[in-house]
Amino acid sequence: MIFPMAHGSRRSCRSVVFPSVVLPSVVLRSAVLAVFVALLVGSGLVASPASAAPPVPPSADPFYTPDGPIAGRAPGAILKTRVVQLGLSGRQLPATATQLLYRTNDQFGKPSATVTTIISPPGARPGTPRRVISYHAFYDALGSECDPSYSLRGGATSNSPLDAVVISGMLAAGYTVVVPDYEGRNLRWTMGLEAGHAALDSVRAALRYLRAPVRTPIGLYGYSGGSVPTGWGAEIAPRYAPELNIVGAAAGGVVVNPIHNLAYVDGSQKWAGVIPALMTVYNETYRLGISKYLSPKGVRVLSQVRGECIINFASKYPGLTDESLLRPQVGSLLNVPGMRAAAEQNIMGSRGTPRAPMFLGVGKSDATGDGIMITGDVRALASTYCRRGLPTTFQEYRGLKHSDALFPWSVDAQRFLNQRFAGAPAGGCGR
User: If you count DSSP H runs as helices and E runs as strands, how many of each does the chain have, helices first?
Assistant: First the structure.
């Protein structure tokens, strides 16, 4: 089934719709994990994990704090370096990575610092040719113990096994994988400019450390929360980091317009917990002074989600509404002074047009979307890019909820990036 795009234009974005055949999430996860682990252990890229003491969490680790002023350093400047042992859900792997504390810019363009993890394929040495993928984990965090720099060292967070197997597959294909803590030290979840800055400056820092040419080919990859640094990074790169040779960007389960997403999950049985989390993030980022608008229930729930990973709050409050968290006279979260204007600053596609070809994918399990992301918003973003002349492929995974669409999207996203690295012409937009 093909959906027309960019009406009135000579181009249209190709939409591939998958049949409505859905396996339970747990079955898909178990099957994919088993296949990847068996493949990678057999190949010698990883071995069976061994028990290990948990790493020091970021909140207590001095590596995450600059030793002095950073305002005079350029974005992407390396502030600290260390070699770390990789781990998986509390168990140690016989593999190492390099972590960098690097200078970047926050949501408002002010100097900040965060950490990235560089994982090289076997045999790669500094100064050798590279193909780099900036992998953006969907860690969706309000607490630093959710950071990928921590989970990749064996810190036990929910999505670390999925990150490990996908990254291992990329390493097996010869890619160097760079994994930034793109929410920054203040855990600014869903903040577009901050995530985009962190992703691009992470690549800058990695290329410096690896002594790789500035024109090294780079791919951006991210699903769900990881779609934010992927989409925003691609969008602002022509202005913010024009020297980077981004050959393609693949974003799935894309957060396009947070205003629409808030309305979609309001009262949801599975995803309503993101409402108090977003209230917390927007309040702390934009200083909304939200405490004076909260109901007693709102005070309690916002205190419960503070410092948590998404696995701990997304489905914890079935049926929760934003209205119940606010005083009666306030009504909707968007009525809180400053909230709507802040959310509008994080609408993808509003700050420019990527230069690299895009692949956008999203599930469609009900009339609106995949349960949390809105299919029509992602389709409209693809259409917008096509009208602006950017080769963009859009794929809808019909019948698949947000978590289930991750797996077919991952296969398609890797295929898309493989083609871009190989120099194949980009499809999409009716071509």
Answer: 11, 11
